[in-house]
Amino acid sequence: MWTLPPVHEAQGAAARCGGIAWPAWSLPSSAVWRPARSALVVVTFTLTLHLVGAVAESDSGLAAGAQAAPSAHHTAASEYSVATQSLLFGVTDPTCIVAGQAGQPMTRAELSRPYTLGVRPGEYGTPCVLPGWHTPAPPSVPTQHGKVILVSLSQQWLWAFEDSKLVFATPVATGREHLRTPTGVYQVMSRSADIVFHSPWPVGSPYYYAPEHINYALLFRAGGFYIHDAPWREVFGPGSESPHFTPSGGVETGSHGCVNVPTIAGDWLYHWARVGTAIQITGAQ
């Protein structure tokens, strides 16, 4: 598990990042991507995390005129398929201790593997693994019958319930400042796979982004508000809606108003949700 260092603004010319003009940034030598300050996490260094190569940091956000993408650019669902797997702790093991608290920001490397690293107490500590992602408690449990997707903007997490039972959870990245994800009660209006999002803002706008391929998308509000995967994003979870450093040394920020999820989660949600599935977006923690 990793902690997000603060972003420090430096004097200088503006730099382009993710389709928005941001001030130039500098990273003090003391502020680097580092494990949470816990001796337990030291053990995780013995297990190499192969970070996926950095890609463009443009956010898809609001989509105008989404259209089918060439099949050559489609990410095969089999690479991420978790249609029958819940990314939660399936079993408990009191001898395997997870460092840090549930709900910390997660990197793309951590999200590519449906398990959480831990350590067994001892003189040297033995690495251990728990199935699923270490998931924080939701702000509430929906009482309505059927399927419900709950998103907390303050926690930057999403939970899926079926008949009030938690069946899935994932960290997310929601709208940045001035383009916050709207709160409220919605429902899935349509489901799309293998499409391209086009910027509703013209070239030259600080919010413009180049056409972006999306694997899975659930429209929940007119105007282009989706829950969709974001393959380019490096960090999900708390703090990802604000400017932050990435493991590759870049800077990224929140979406253009959509709820970004890892591709593995987008796959699961796309196959689980149906048109009409309830969606609750709250700022509560």
Quick structural overview:
6% of the residues lie in helices and 34% in strands. It has 285 residues and is mainly β.
What does this structure look like?
The chain has 285 residues and is mostly beta strands. The chain has a domain at 57-87 and 137-282: L,D-transpeptidase catalytic domain-like, CATH 2.40.440. 6% of the residues lie in helices and 34% in strands. The chain has three helices and 20 strands. The strands form seven sheets. It has a five-stranded mixed sheet with strand order 5-13-14-15-19, covered by helices on one side. A five-stranded mixed sheet has the order 11-10-9-20-12, with no helix packed on it. Strands 1-4 form a two-stranded antiparallel sheet. The longest helix has 10 residues, at 263-272. The chain is globular. The two termini are 21 Å apart.
CATH superfamily of the domain at 57-87 and 137-282: L,D-transpeptidase catalytic domain-like
Overall average residue pLDDT: 74
The percent range for strand residues is 25-35%
Radius of gyration over alpha carbons? Answer: 19 Å
Summing up helix and strand content along with how strands pair, one would put the structural category as mainly beta
Q: Report the sheet with the most strands, covering strand number, pairing sense and barrel closure.
A: 5 strands, mixed
What fold name stands as the CATH topology of the domain at 57-87 and 137-282?
Answer: L,D-transpeptidase catalytic domain-like
What fraction, in percent, of the residue positions are helical? under 10%
Order of strands in the sheet with most strands: 5-13-14-15-19
Uncertain ranges: 1-86
Outline: globular
Can you tell me the CATH class of the domain at 57-87 and 137-282? Mainly Beta
> How many beta-strand elements?
20
The helix tally amounts to: 3
Helix and strand pattern: EEEEHEEHEEEEEEEEEEEEEHE
